[in-house]
Structure formats: C-alpha cells, structure tokens
What does this fold into?
Amino acid sequence: MDAIALLSSDHRKIRLLFGEYRIADTDRGRRMAADTLIRELSRHLAAEESVFYPYAAKVLDAKATERPLEICSAIKRDLAVLDGHRSAKEDDAMSMEQLELDVADHIDLDEQYLMPRLRTASDDAGLRRTGARLAQAELAGPTRPRPAGPDRATSRAGTGPLLALYDRIRDRVRGRPTT
It folds into this structure.
C-alpha cells in the first residue's frame, strides 16, 4: 500500500473512532473509545511526523509541511489533556470537540492539499516505499501523546522505540485497549 492510501485509510478509521465515542452509552464505553482514539492518533501522528512529512518536505518543499506539523502539535496537546482523564466524565464536551475539530483540520489539509500535490510530484515506487516505512513506524510507534517531545524525525529515531515500549507496558498495567 502506498503512503497516501495508508494514511487515507487511517483517517477513515480515526473518523469512525470519533463516531464510536459519540454513540457509546456508558462511561466505560466512552472511556474505552477515548483510549483507543488516543492510541491510534498517537501512533498515526508519530508515523506521519517521522516518515511522511519528511518525505513530503523532500519531494515538495519544507514549507508544504509547516502547517500540517503545527496542527499535529495542537492535536498532541489535545490528546495529552484527554489522556490525563481517568473517566469519560472528565472528557468534557469541549476537550473532545476541540480534538475532533483539530483532527478534521489535519485530515482536510492532508487529503485536500498535501496528498494531491505529493501524488503528482512523487513516483509510485517512492510512495510505496514510504507506505512500507509508515506501516512499520505505526506498529512500533508510541501509543501516548508526547506534545513536548521532539518534533524532528532525527530526534525521534533514537527515543521512539523506548517510548513505545514504555507506553505498551503502561497500557497493559492500566488495562487500556491494545487495538
């Protein structure tokens, strides 16, 4: 699967997770949906920041990824607030609403601006290689947001696997979903 198809699939999955949160009728159901959303978005953003956006900056230019990276930072801050909650009762409508708005901006910017430009400027082999790297990065990526963490791919390369291991241990101890 190429990078654009993989990320578009992720975006659909993330939108569905927001729907699951909205339709959950118990505190536990909403908390499970929120925990799954935190996990999937954290992995998705880490992979985009370390693989996709550097590739897009190389193929297009660094300016093309400035706004997407800003939105990723905002989403990670939203996720950190949500991750600090222990029950869905703490997930006030404002926190989830802001997260959903920021994620919608992220998806729109990627799918309507960046991906079409990248599809035109890149070759199929490059997109497939990047897709394979993205898939690996998502599997090995951290499952919790790191809003103060390094934003540069080179910085994350050394700490990413350790943070991901720490997150997985913490998730298991706290009984969080493992999707």
